[in-house]
């Protein structure tokens, strides 16, 4: 590509990043549901607002079936248009294989990196204790979503379905807006 072409691309991407920096991420709702209490249950799962700038998400899933082999995670991204419609991603991975090699799925790697520092989940299998996400702050998510991977404005839903032997035992839905 010519130098001119590269400059134009740089200018466009800079403009794009300036525009995107003004966008805002907000968690709007959270739904954690345990479908099979033999496998485990949510002790809590909530969105807390300390003040205007400090809001966070926490959740704890108490694992009853220990260890839990062959856990699959299905991630579906939804965008609200007229009701929520699947948008861009519908991915299923084997949780243990993914944890051993996060690079195998760049989208899930990005999502995992968005909360792993606030969780106890970054270790290899088996998972034999409660799964916890503690005080994942909105400011951190704002940075991740709007500056590292710009997502267009809108209302979104990240849905995670956890299954074991083809049956879904738990689900988490994270609703957020980018404005
Ligand atoms: C959460 O999701 C479950 C399962 O889809 C649904 O039955 C329940 O009504 C939802 N809870 C809330 C508070 O929306
Ligand atoms: C919001 O709460 C956090 C934690 O208590 C505090 O550190 C921060 O200064 C508060 N911010 C504002 C704008 O009050
Ligand atoms: C996600 O993909 C699976 C496998 O291709 C499919 O069965 C399922 O219906 C899809 N889910 C949605 C919400 O599109
Ligand atoms: C998980 O832990 C490993 C080893 O401590 C570290 O290298 C890696 O960056 C961590 N991954 C995430 C997504 O936090």
UniProtKB/TrEMBL annotation:
InterPro entries per UniProt: DUF1091 (IPR010512)
Entry-linked PANTHER family: DAEDALUS ON 3-RELATED, DAEDALUS ON 3-RELATED-RELATED
UniProt name for this protein: GD21555
Organism whose genome encodes this protein: Drosophila simulans
């Amino acid at each position: 590509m010519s130098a001119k072409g590269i400059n134009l691309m740089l200018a466009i991407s800079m403009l794009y990043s300036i525009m995107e920096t003004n966008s805002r991420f907000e968690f709007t709702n959270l739904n954690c549901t345990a479908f099979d209490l033999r496998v485990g249950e949510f002790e809590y799962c909530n969105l807390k607002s300390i003040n205007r700038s400090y809001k966070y998400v926490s959740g704890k899933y108490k694992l009853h079936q220990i260890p839990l082999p062959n856990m699959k995670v299905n991630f579906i991204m939804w965008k609200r248009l007229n009701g929520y419609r699947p948008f861009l991603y519908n991915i299923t991975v084997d949780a243990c294989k993914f944890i051993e090699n996060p690079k195998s799925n760049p989208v899930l790697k990005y999502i995992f990196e968005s909360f792993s520092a606030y969780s106890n989940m970054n270790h290899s299998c088996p998972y034999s204790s409660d799964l916890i996400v503690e005080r994942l702050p909105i400011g951190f998510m704002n940075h991740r979503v709007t500056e590292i991977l710009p997502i267009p404005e809108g209302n979104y839903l990240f849905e995670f379905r956890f299954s074991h032997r083809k049956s879904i035992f738990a689900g988490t839905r994270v609703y957020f807006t980018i404005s």
